[in-house]
Amino acid sequence: MTRPLYLQVRDALIERIAAGAWKPGASIPNELDLSREYGVSAGTMRKALEIMESEHVVVRKQGRGTYVIDQATDELRGRYTAVRHANGARVAGHVEIVDVMEGAAHEQECERLRLELSDTVYRIRSVARVAGSPYMVEQISMPARLFPDLLKTNGFPRDISAIAQAHGKLLGKPEERISVGQASPEVAELLLVAPMAPLIVLDRVSISLDGNFVEWRVAQCHLTANCYLA
Amino acid sequence: MTRPLYLQVRDALIERIAAGAWKPGASIPNELDLSREYGVSAGTMRKALEIMESEHVVVRKQGRGTYVIDQATDELRGRYTAVRHANGARVAGHVEIVDVMEGAAHEQECERLRLELSDTVYRIRSVARVAGSPYMVEQISMPARLFPDLLKTNGFPRDISAIAQAHGKLLGKPEERISVGQASPEVAELLLVAPMAPLIVLDRVSISLDGNFVEWRVAQCHLTANCYLA
DNA sequence: AAGTGGTCTAGACCACTCA
DNA sequence: GAGTGGTCTAGACCACTTG
């Protein structure tokens, strides 16, 4: 029933990184020093670090060292912005916040984010445009408890990678579903398409590496023939 | 420059499984016996087996043993049939072959399957129906060299998992892209939709674990609101 | 040359499954 | 209780990077 040592070490290191003990991009101590510090063998420390590498928390480079990954950096954000051009590059749209609200979690949010009806969420609606023409509307819900003072932060709008990092949360692998839907009247107006026009729906729940449900996003895309998801 | 021992061992074991030395579902010898047979340490053999588990070639069960995974089995095929119901279950459509052709690879096939223009491919077109109504057309290209006598095999139609297994190829993680397209006149007729109707396009290249490009598939789906991709 | 992660070994003990 | 995979340790040596 006891959690394996290498996972306990992983948890401790992740907590330390999330708390900012080592900044994104900085190197962390070598295996031997860390294993002595935590009182485990080098092999156990290695296993913990290998897991963290597979979780995109650190990168290890032979002959150089182990470095904290900057989750707000472009390459990583690729995991969180699935719309691509045919050449594989991310679609670099301009995101504009439509409105931000704070309110009691409704039933669907409770289910997806494992909340109680008494919990509070932030809701952010935004539109992404490329060369001025809108191609995606986004509806995001985030538990308010995890993001104190979110609305007061300047630098808004920012994507979930940056927000999570600023609040000491490291993102894990999101759960994602793709489906098709039709434009509601409001969405149609934002996207400049006809009501009932077919849209691709991206539904994503992001979970932090310490097990918190961090974000639920539903994006509705009006994709042109030259874009794809991957 | 030398390939690490544990990868050499992995390669040898994968070749042995692909060749049918151990049948799908059967157990393989324990770590200690295997490590003695290959003249490596138990730790090295363990690492090879762990990699093979991550590649879905074997499953390891504490206290029981290590078992060859049947790639043609339902759970695994899930990786290769992305269309799901809202509850997560695979859409169990009935697939009907429209036509099968053999011919010289055209340019796009060469690019995707790393072939030369002189190579031969099989092309299979099929339609999937659920409760009689068509929802997906599929166009598959496979290098003829890798699948001798494909057309003579009975039991056709079968999906790529079963075909690959029968020809001693173990499938790795496919590359997949999702995009949107419009129904061509032919596709529209097969799917019973209007020409130019919006469709979801799944483009997938499957690579075997020994590095062969095994299949290129383009599926065009007419998804209803209750289905999604994942 | 010094320092880092990567590979490889050998062996002890634990946790689980099944007869 | 015998057999399996899972965890943990200790230490040697290799390959790569940097000053």
For the structure shown, list the relevant keywords.
Arc Repressor Mutant, subunit A; DNA-binding; six-stranded antiparallel beta sheet; Chorismate lyase; three-stranded antiparallel beta sheet; 2 domains; 33% strand; 7 helices; 230 residues; homodimer; alpha+beta
Can you describe this structure?
Two copies of one chain form a homodimer. With 230 residues, chain A is α+β, with helices and mostly antiparallel strands. Chain A is built from seven helices and eleven strands. Chain A has helices spanning 5-18, 31-38, 42-54, 74-77, 107-113, 160-166, 185-191, and strands at 27-28, 58-61, 65-68, 83-85, 94-104, 120-130, 133-143, 175-182, 198-207, 213-221, 227-229. The first copy, chain A, has a six-stranded antiparallel beta sheet. The first copy, chain A, is globular, with a radius of gyration of 20 Å. The model of chain A has no long low-confidence stretch (mean pLDDT 87). Chains A and B meet through strand 8, strand 9 and strand 11 of A and strand 8, strand 9 and strand 11 of B. The first copy, chain A, binds a DNA duplex (19 and 19 nucleotides) through residues 4-6, 30-32, 40-44, 46-47, 49, 60-66.
